[in-house]
Design a protein that fits this description.
With 427 residues, the chain is α+β, with helices and mostly antiparallel strands. 16% of the residues lie in helices and 50% in strands. It contains 5 helices and 24 strands. The chain has a 22-stranded mixed β-sheet that branches. Strands 5-8 form a two-stranded parallel ribbon.
């Protein structure tokens, strides 16, 4: 017996049942979607998970998240931690990260790197952890610079290294385009105890790249317990950022500064030219051409001079300078004739390796014709002797040797002179 063939079209009863099933499925999908959308942390976890997988990182956000889909999509995540899988130290953490980007970037799936704005609150970047992750990445011949149409803002940022850190970072970048110059405002405080360097700079780059022309100007201060050196500075030169060091070769640096300690205020102007390097928490210029000019009148003991040599500043200050004094400062101990009577520039050699406040022993050699003075001194002791005036000891706190074919002292002329100067407190 042959069964009747199925009807060509479903009966109205069957069509109604299928419609009900479809509506139920749509309702279930809508319920799931609304539940997912109502939990921004779920959306954030999904997005951060995908970004982390692409970069070989674990990215988590334990705080409440937010996002917006109308207009320009926006994602806000809090208490963010970024680390290499299995690493004890995160390479980045932040209290808050907000990202706004156009739909065109989302649809391109990474082919287009256009972002409207990025904001970071209290980010902490661990430099050794970052360098370890970068070293693990496969080599790439292409460096892609994103476009930020509405810029970048960082508040209360920090960078931490093994032996130094930068705190209180505030950065404002109005916009960023791969093929346009960059302008930004940077503020913060470099710390390598007991050395502190607060800064507030306007920075310009010829392009956003590891190698670019740099221009910066603003306020910087070098601070140590008991003294500080505030300055208005201008710096320019070709910048290159490597894996382990920063260089500006050559760098041109000008500063209007003042040495301040207690009631002492000694203004001066300084110009430096040479290859500037920052590596292992040390700023160095070698070889350097240096011009120093005292300001504020003849009572300023800071000399006016021109010199070449080497300079380095970190936990210790290194000075190796050969040059000439424009004239012997009136505030310094008077030189005997004929060394002190000539108005010609006075050649000198200065050597110092010690604490940045110049409180340790420095070596100074002066020479004119056949006369020569080799001396050792501590600058704070000499300044104290100058301040004491007539009420202090008759001889300055110096140690060394004077050799001259002729000297005039207190009206007497001495020939073939060799004089030893001794200060038992100097090494």
């Amino acid at each position: 017996m042959v069964a009747d063939p199925a009807p060509a079209n479903p009966t109205p009863k069957r069509r109604g049942r299928r419609a009900l099933i479809a509506l139920a499925a749509l309702a279930l999908l809508a319920t799931f979607s609304l539940s997912w959308i109502s939990r921004p942390d779920r959306a954030a976890a999904l997005i951060l998970g995908r970004v982390g997988a692409a970069l070989g990182l674990e990215i988590t956000a334990s705080g409440a998240g937010e996002y917006r889909l109308r207009g320009s999509p926006m994602l806000l995540v809090r208490d963010v931690v970024v680390r290499e899988p299995g690493a004890a130290t995160p390479l980045l953490s932040a209290k808050r990260i907000q990202l706004s980007l156009p739909w065109s970037t989302i649809r391109s799936r990474g082919e287009q790197l256009t972002v409207e704005r990025i904001e970071l609150d209290a980010p902490l970047l661990d430099l050794p952890a970052l360098q370890h992750w970068l070293a693990s990445r496969p080599p790439s011949t292409e460096t892609r610079i994103p476009t930020l149409t509405d810029g970048l803002r960082i508040v209360d940022g920090r960078i931490r290294n093994d032996d130094w850190r930068i705190d209180g970072i505030r950065a404002d970048l109005p916009e960023l385009y791969p093929d346009r110059p960059v302008r930004a405002r940077l503020r913060g405080r470099y710390l390598d105890p007991p050395l502190t360097i607060p800064f507030d700079l306007a920075v310009a780059l010829s392009r956003p790249a590891p190698a670019a022309g740099l221009g910066a100007n603003g306020r910087v201060a070098i601070e140590q317990p008991g003294w500080r050196l505030p300055a208005t500075v201008a710096l320019s030169g070709p910048l290159r950022i490597g894996d382990d060091e920063l260089t500006i070769v050559p760098a041109l640096l000008g500063a209007a500064a003042s040495y301040e300690s207690g009631d002492t205020h000694l203004p001066f102007a300084l110009g430096l030219h040479g290859p500037l390097k920052f590596d292992e928490a040390v700023w160095s210029l070698e070889p350097v051409a240096l011009a120093l000019r005292a300001r504020g009148g003849d009572g300023n003991p800071i000399p006016s001079l021109d010199a070449t040599g080497a300079l380095a500043l970190g936990r210790r200050l290194v000075l190796q300078l050969d040059g000439s004094l424009a004239r012997w400062p009136q505030a310094w101990p008077a030189l005997p004739a004929p060394l002190g009577t000539s108005s010609a520039p006075l050649p000198f050699e200065l050597r110092y390796v010690g604490r940045p406040d110049l409180s340790e022993t420095a070596g100074l050699r002066l020479s004119r014709d056949a006369a020569r003075i080799d001396s050792r001194f501590c600058l704070p002791a000499v300044l104290a002797w100058i301040d004491a005036g007539a009420g202090g000891p008759p001889l300055p706190p110096l140690a060394g040797r004077i050799v001259a074919p002729k000297l005039e002292i207190s009206g007497a002329t001495l020939e073939a002179v060799e004089v030893e100067l001794g200060d038992e407190d100097l090494p």
